[in-house]
Amino acid sequence: MKMRKGMKMNNQKIVMLLAVLGLFVSSCNSTKYLTEDEKLYDEGKVELKVDSGVANDRKEAFEESLASMLRPEPNAKLLGWRWKLSLWNMGGGPDTTTNFVRRWLKRQGEEPVLLSDVNREYNENLLRNRLENLGFFNASFFSDTSINGKLATVTYYGIPRSIYRINAVKFDIDSARQIGKDILETRDKSLLQNGKNYNLDVIINERERIDDDLKNQGYYYFSPDNLLVEVDSTIGDHKVDMFVNLKPETSEKAVHPQKIGNIFIYPNYTLTTEGYQRQNRLRNQELFNDNYYIIDRNKTYRRKVLANHIFFERGQLYNRHDHNQTINHLVNLNTFKFVKNNFEDSPDSTNTLDIYYYLTPLPKKSLRFEVLGKTATVYNGSEANVTWTLRNAFRGFETLTLNVFGGYETQTGGNVNLNSSYYRYGAEATITWPRLLSPYKWAPSRKFIPRTYLKLGYEFLNRRTAYTLNSTSLNYGYNWKENDRKQHDLALAEIIYVQPRNVTPEYEAQMDTVPTLRHIIEPQFSFGPNYNFTYTNTMEQERKHTFYFKGGINLSGNVLGLIQGANASEGNIKELFNTVYSQFIKLEGDFRHYMKLSTNSQLASRIMIGTSYSYGNSRSLPYLKQYFTGGPNGLRAFRARSVGPGSSLPENLGQDNFFADQTGDYKLELNTEYRAKIAGFLHWAAFVDAGNIWLQNRDDNKPGGRLSKEFLSELAVGGGAGLRFDFDFLILRTDFAIPFRIPYNAKSDRWVFKDIDFGSGKWRENNLIFNLAIGYPF
């Protein structure tokens, strides 16, 4: 029989595929290159014998923490697969090959960790020492090894015994000296408390606490190492007495507060390969504001603005707060590439420090180009951004940015032609000032730099088979941080103007069938202030419960509408600059709660509430201000803007027609997600989402869309699971979700669990939603 040419090629491909597969499978054999007497170190475990009254989860967490100290660590695993060891095996293992590919694979992998590499006695002493540092002075450990084929596990068995507690804390400090008085005044804030467990970490923190207090009272040269905490564990009854002392060898410099002398600022410093070198100040240099020598020959920066970010003054005592705050401000001016300060003994006075600030500027102008890829359910596209930045634009550390962008999006899947392909381009110019420009003198916390911003933007959107939109926006306002947790953003003026153009006959024909489409292309003109407040403590990772809240209010046309007596319900519609303007009050809140379940897992939950009241000149929010739900960051089991309002049916209008976005004046969304680490950068999550949007006023074209007392029965519900790839600098998220409850079904048929059929291609096509996104949804 004569073999066809195509068949021969297919056979060759199969042979090559089998060869590659065989190489991969053989590399997965972790013990491939081990000799007969070598064992692969599989795992190190810790088991503690503790009282029965200790909760299992606390015991397991403690054992897990101790096990993380064991050395060496076994080969890295991903879902049980030693992937780095496999790469090393694929590279030839111990073979010293010169093949480029094999050498590269070996560099990416890691050699096998053997049982012979484990020093059990060292680990036993390490664990015992750790328990002693926690107050278990009589703890003991022993270990045992279990062998399973070529794999070895070492288990360390520990008996903590009784913990020692603090009986008394005494500060043996000479109160006749000033430093003694200053230390004794801090006793009430001591971390060493009677009745608490002995803990070496707490002792270290106590020394650092005293040092921090002294640093804020001028003791620049003091160090935590100047303090000694002695412990007497012989008093019996598993108790200890503690004595806080100042070491006798502490230097004279360390026990005297330091004053601030001359302050030299070099805002155009050039860093050399020899490091920071003191520069001589210019002759006849003036002392600015009786405090600062600013060596700026070319007057690059306005001295008053620069001095406003230096918190030290001549003659004051040194303190760490002003030290750190000055550095923080200089770094966050976004003008300097490097910020360095040196404190040196003044040649003119004892116990006095001269300060030298060396500030290396960033390039005054910079250009950045980036290309983004976007994907969401059945849409794909890309966007390009070119950003030009001018730093220190007006010599007061202002930043001027000009961003020019362009992009497109097209439909690449789905069973309905949404005709949502579009291209867009535009530009935005932004100026930010590192201060509050206001006729009224008000200043929030000086710990953070407040900012004033002015933004002017333009965008042209062309939905080629439907319409084009010209959008112009103007924003002027302030943002500032009250403290580490609270942030404010007040836009004194937000103006948005959208004008439709080139509406196609096909789109106009569809508007007669689906009046909702008309709302999208209505001219939009809103103006007024808005305010947002953000609170978060999610940076405090030691907490079991952390929170995030963002709330805001947005106003438009309120005063003008009242003055003009606008009333859209009675046909009395008013205009500004020959354009109908919107009149509304909009409130929204986003509350999130994160509960740490273990070191590698947490439960994240969110509730979003949006409400509004349109009156006077408007019967509903303008399209750009309306709420929507669905999509990769909301109800993930439903496509973006495809849910609601209420129980109304989404208007998919056929193979070649348009898809009307579902928007509303009210919104409720609830999300909860279990997140856990699998191994390395690989995480997973399971989630449930619920929510919907509603209208303020009745719309005959959207039956069931108005908010009513039955709104809870109209919630859409969905859920699913997905993987997260956490690369530190980037989190890539994949989610698969299906609907559980569909609000536009009949009341008795809204839960759709009975319809779930993963074996049906038709069901999967209509119900299984895949979302690819960057970052967590909340």
UniProtKB/TrEMBL annotation:
Q: Has UniProt tagged this entry with the keyword Signal?
A: yes
Note the superkingdom of the native organism. Bacteria
Where does the signal peptide begin and end? 1-32
UniProt entry keywords in alphabetical sequence: Cell outer membrane, Membrane, Signal, Transmembrane
The record's subcellular locations are: Membrane
Q: PROSITE patterns, per this entry?
A: PROKAR_LIPOPROTEIN
- Segments forming domain Bacterial surface antigen (D15): 405-753
Quote the protein name from its UniProt record.
Answer: Bacterial surface antigen (D15) domain-containing protein
Organism for this UniProt entry: Sphingobacterium pedocola
